[in-house]
Amino acid sequence: MTTANICGSDLHPYEGRASMDPGMVFGHENMGVVEEVGPGVDRIKVGDRVSVPFNLACGTCRNCNDGFTSACLRANPSGQPGAGYGYPMMGPYWGGQAEFLRVPWADFNLLELPAGTEHENDFTMLSDIFPTGYHGTELAGVAPGKTVAIYGAGPVGLMAAHSAVLRGASQVFVVDKEADRLALATEYGATAVDFSQVDPTETIMDATDGFGVDCGVEAVGYQAHDQTGEEHPELALDQLVGVVRATGGLGVVGVYVPEDPQAATEQAKQGRVAFDFGAAWTKGLRIGTGQCPVKAYNRHLRDLIIRGEAHPSKIVSHELPLDQAVEAYDHFDKREDGWTKVLLGPGRSA
Amino acid sequence: MTTANICGSDLHPYEGRASMDPGMVFGHENMGVVEEVGPGVDRIKVGDRVSVPFNLACGTCRNCNDGFTSACLRANPSGQPGAGYGYPMMGPYWGGQAEFLRVPWADFNLLELPAGTEHENDFTMLSDIFPTGYHGTELAGVAPGKTVAIYGAGPVGLMAAHSAVLRGASQVFVVDKEADRLALATEYGATAVDFSQVDPTETIMDATDGFGVDCGVEAVGYQAHDQTGEEHPELALDQLVGVVRATGGLGVVGVYVPEDPQAATEQAKQGRVAFDFGAAWTKGLRIGTGQCPVKAYNRHLRDLIIRGEAHPSKIVSHELPLDQAVEAYDHFDKREDGWTKVLLGPGRSA
Amino acid sequence: MTTANICGSDLHPYEGRASMDPGMVFGHENMGVVEEVGPGVDRIKVGDRVSVPFNLACGTCRNCNDGFTSACLRANPSGQPGAGYGYPMMGPYWGGQAEFLRVPWADFNLLELPAGTEHENDFTMLSDIFPTGYHGTELAGVAPGKTVAIYGAGPVGLMAAHSAVLRGASQVFVVDKEADRLALATEYGATAVDFSQVDPTETIMDATDGFGVDCGVEAVGYQAHDQTGEEHPELALDQLVGVVRATGGLGVVGVYVPEDPQAATEQAKQGRVAFDFGAAWTKGLRIGTGQCPVKAYNRHLRDLIIRGEAHPSKIVSHELPLDQAVEAYDHFDKREDGWTKVLLGPGRSA
Amino acid sequence: MTTANICGSDLHPYEGRASMDPGMVFGHENMGVVEEVGPGVDRIKVGDRVSVPFNLACGTCRNCNDGFTSACLRANPSGQPGAGYGYPMMGPYWGGQAEFLRVPWADFNLLELPAGTEHENDFTMLSDIFPTGYHGTELAGVAPGKTVAIYGAGPVGLMAAHSAVLRGASQVFVVDKEADRLALATEYGATAVDFSQVDPTETIMDATDGFGVDCGVEAVGYQAHDQTGEEHPELALDQLVGVVRATGGLGVVGVYVPEDPQAATEQAKQGRVAFDFGAAWTKGLRIGTGQCPVKAYNRHLRDLIIRGEAHPSKIVSHELPLDQAVEAYDHFDKREDGWTKVLLGPGRSA
Q1: Other beta carbons less than 10 A from residue D298's beta carbon
Q2: Which end of chain A lies in a sparser environment, N or C, as judged by fewer CB atoms within 10 Å?
Q3: What residues of B are in contact with residue D65 (Cβ under 8 Å)?
Q4: CA distance linking residue B222 with residue B192, whole number of Å
Q5: Secondary structure (3-state) at D214
Q6: Do B103 and B38 contact (CB within 8 A), yes or no?
Q7: Model pTM?
Q8: Which of A145, A147, A167 is opposite residue D144, by nearest beta carbon?
Q9: Which among D168, D300, D304 has the least Cβ separation from residue A166?
Q10: Do C59 and A58 touch (CB under 8 A)?
């Protein structure tokens, strides 16, 4: 392992909101150099520098055949579609916030990278958040000349903004209230909308002659909360239904869960989200959801990094050695200012 | 006007659940022969037999250019996208349950039909429900070999079943409780699932080796109700989220409204639908919604009728002269057995 | 091996027009029951009944990831994209006109079938010609309501006709001069056009109000010849460019080769085909070419067979035991009347 | 008329290689301000600043409905699909290298622009070459991360390069031999390949690890000629077939004609192009052809100009008053160095 990132979704088990097994290792944003290969591996070689998609997939089931590595039918012993590292519900696979990582079906799962250490902090975004942000723009139908609104300027929202600009969107709005994150959105060429200062709906409608944007990306998830901190899972969805124009598309890459026993309301406990579906229907919106199938995008995004056109590492706020992971989780979980994205790995200095 | 159909959505204003203006004529499923053309018309000629799409569209705005005639930006004086006949909220255009109908932008809106009277009852389905059912299968991603579940065996659901079979689906389930409608589903080559007799989820999961179907079509809408008659707008959506497999598609052509002052709950009044969104997200479903842009499909569906491959008129239960419309509405509104689809027009006999 | 078919492209090496190695076994249309699996196989089990796609693919290279198993970058030691069985230029893999067949990367390549012997003659078409015919319709953009012209009523052309009807085409023309093959086209619901009796261009243009068809499928290939037997590689292409309407699509699944040393003209030797490209450009045609990536279609086509909606075995003319293969090749190579499709396998009787 | 550009295809009739009627006005790249509207016009207003797509289309025929304004079935009295300005074979419509231009079906054809004079030289590219270059990238399947080779650095090739970069291509090669044009390609972010200095095939294959590019754009046309000036219509196509990788896409926006009585060879006179079709088939290439349907792209490209992300005017070499058109044609026809793109209009100074 040369780099393993901490992801916002690591905080779900960290906070006890998702289950975790004692002794399991966290970490699904992984990259490194191959130390050893099993007997069934004939493509990947020892010494290859590789990125590890967070979805662990068999490569031969029906869903993998169709490109949905996010819903592999064989990798998760639970029988649920989809497997991954560092989450009991995604299978028994330990994560990569460690010195080594075992990658099943390595020929299928691993993406080869140029040897060396160049672009390390950019490439490490290929395992999850860069493709996930891109997936949001894909589900939303972003295309050259279109306008886009992204709710949430966390790492995924920022990667969605970067992706939307790379894909030729004519204007990209990013809505959040954290100044440091909004500054990164601006660096990626987006228009920052600070909802602690302005009404985002009004701002976006005004800037689009009252029509709204062509595409919306939800990068917040079920823990969306208002300014008092109260959770309203429908909050970002409602606003997006409001600002996306009739005939538009909505990509939901913020995480929603089928049940959430610790949620505030009975509906939320059951994974129900009472958003403005009637308004969405009237507009004829198309809503794409779910985890990103990383392999669908990581090769092309890698090539954009190599050619100097994509720079996902701008969001890195901290690089730390593995033995400082405990403190890093603590800061990150408290959403402390400036802790946008933490990378762990040997040779990193605090 | 040679034929005008009564549509389930005519019942919304009929029941006072949607607004209606005194003196406005009902009817958005229209066909006839051209009596007269305005000076700006250079394609359509007097004497042409034509089908009138229920969406009234200008043909030159941005949404029309993009094929979204269901969201025309110019035809509705209210400024809302989308216009139509026989509904105050869709603009000031009178409907076609009458002797004559005025069709603006006739060159753009009208679909020409072969002269004569052949296929009259099939062609009359081209103005709304055949394309609308087809649209449901399009939004759901139906393709050759795929499996499909359709909830609701009303006219739109039956047209969705007919469309799914025409498109090469390998198995099509239609879920309803009305025996006569389920019999029609069977005639169209679908597998009828009577939810008053069996658990539809269990039936469909069993028939698909526990995987569920590839595609789901919602043809029920916000007035979905349980067997006691109580409305639960999320009822059909929830069941579809349950039976559509991970990575699948869901087309929602049943009508949902942005507000419904007479609904039973506060959420429903606001057009909110608290369905299992968390489960849908976990499965990575893609959900398409909204009114059908009829012009996207009516020409090809017409050609399938002419070539003898499509037979939408099987669902016609009654053909009546215009002066029996009042009684027809009464029977239809009471959902009397066998009143599946009513056609009105000169020369029709009770 | 339970069934191995003889394919028209087996005749290229048989006639010495493509190279063949002494001792290599012919046969790329294969199905059977698994006798033994290697140590790297964890999905397929001994005893599984399976269909073997003619493209042999690694499942983990870039092209396989993108669904182009027809252009696998790793399976062919020559370095050329694409590998297969029973052809020296497609790699060192022996064919299946034998008792046993070795299938590399079996988990990826094999399609599982229901146990038993039902649908044997239908399923055997899943290895090549049914998907290949379907691929022609996909490249041509066939969709519900469209009109289609297919040139060539050999097995692939007939499978294209069957596919086009399954996909909801409103009218399908099949052009050939062999009465028995045209009769099969009619059985599949197509309109037979016998070019020894009528001018096909005129016939098709007349039947489409002078507009031509939406889609064309070329199922003839570089050995297209006129009624005198003289080869004109551009013959079928030219006619298709003529009958496909402006804005239409053309799928070329007939085989063309980059060089053909025994061809009649210098251009043909170099793989050049001087067809009416200027006319195609003026019409704005889209032309798809190449070998079918079988895995893109075989699962859905299998399901259509199981559900009783697809019947590719109608074209089978002969079923023979393996020891009569020599005579079978002789008859087939002479294009004897009625030798449409030959199946070889144990238990087959002459 | 505020701006009318001279286009390379104006040279076909200028040189007598395409027919021209005495008295007809040249010019199909037009923009201006509306002076007067006819009685059937209800969207466009006097005073609107507008861009005029070079395809003149009715907006209500089947092809226009499907988005193929390049193949309008009603606008050209000859009965051929497609109409335009300033070409007898495209209908009797005079061109815009004049003070005024008549635009039929103005509501459908005209694209509205922001009032004023800002971006005049960028917007004037919206009538033809910017969308045409973009169309080449669309036909070729350009998408984020892909590699692209464009043959021909004339105005259309340069616009294709600009488009490919805007769409997120990871590397774009432009092949030509004119230093000034290659310099513009570099300005747009492409890699210039000067075929008078290097072998373009070798250069591109080397730069892509021997795989070739994902996408190719042909922006040369039937007058492709070698360094001695001899015409070889298949020249650019052959090279593109060579450098586009197996499974790739090829967009041909260079003009090919169905007949060319003055061509050098019998085949060329008939519009036949004997390119390496066998090699293309073996690679499984997809080849899109034909004139650009401008309305499919001009709105989004306009928005990219307004937002400062697209700069098509970089290629403008000369701005002249209308009365210097004769000299301009003379220079342009001689392919004099530096005469890349000429704009004509009132207030322009030599």
Answers
A1: 24
A2: C
A3: 295, 299
A4: 22
A5: strand
A6: no
A7: 0.97
A8: A167
A9: D168
A10: no
Q: Which residues in chain C come in under a pLDDT of 50? A: none
pLDDT band for A6, please (50, 70, 90 cuts): very high
Shortest Cα–Cα distance, C128 to chain D (Å): 16
- Per-residue pLDDT tens over the stretch A85-107: 999 999 999 999 999 999 999 99
Cα(C183)–Cα(B83) distance, rounded to whole angstroms? 50
Instruction: Tell me the pLDDT tens digit for each residue of B78-118.
Output: 999 999 999 999 999 999 999 999 999 999 999 999 999 99
pLDDT band at D167 (very low <50, low <70, confident <90, very high): very high
CA angle at C31 for the pair C26 and C37, rounded to the nearest 5°: 100
**Complex ipTM, two decimals?**
0.97
Residue A20 to residue A1: CA distance in whole angstroms: 22
Which structural domains are found in chain C, ordered by start?
3-128+293-344 (3.90.180.10), 130-289 (3.40.50.720)
Min Cα–Cα distance to chain D from A139, Å: 15
Amino acid letter for position B233: P
pLDDT at C350: 62
Q: What percent of chain B has pLDDT over 70?
A: 100
Please tell me if residue D296 touches chain A, with a CB cutoff of 8 Å.
Answer: no
Distance CA A281, CA A277 (A): 6
For the record, the structure tokens of C313 come out as 């075995």
3-state helix, strand, coil in chain D (%, to 5): 35, 20, 50
The pLDDT value recorded for residue A350 is: 62
Measured between CA atoms, the residue of chain C closest to residue A38 is: C40
Average pLDDT estimate for A132-160:
98
3-state SS assignment for residue D118: coil
Please compute the mean of the pLDDT values over residues A327-345 and round it to a whole number: 93
Q: Residues 42 to 71 of C: which have CB under 8 A from any A CB?
A: 43, 58-62, 65, 67
Please state the φ and ψ torsions of residue B41, each to the nearest 5 degrees: -100, 120
Which burial class, exposed, middle or buried, applies to A22 when counting CB atoms under 10 A from its CB (0-12, 13-18, 19+)? Answer: exposed
Distance, in Å, from the CA atom of A261 to the CA atom of A222, rounded to the nearest integer, reads 13
pLDDT of residue C203: 98
The token duo for D278 is: 């066998």
- Residue B168 reports pLDDT greater than 90: yes
SS3 A112: strand
- Amino acid found at C116: G
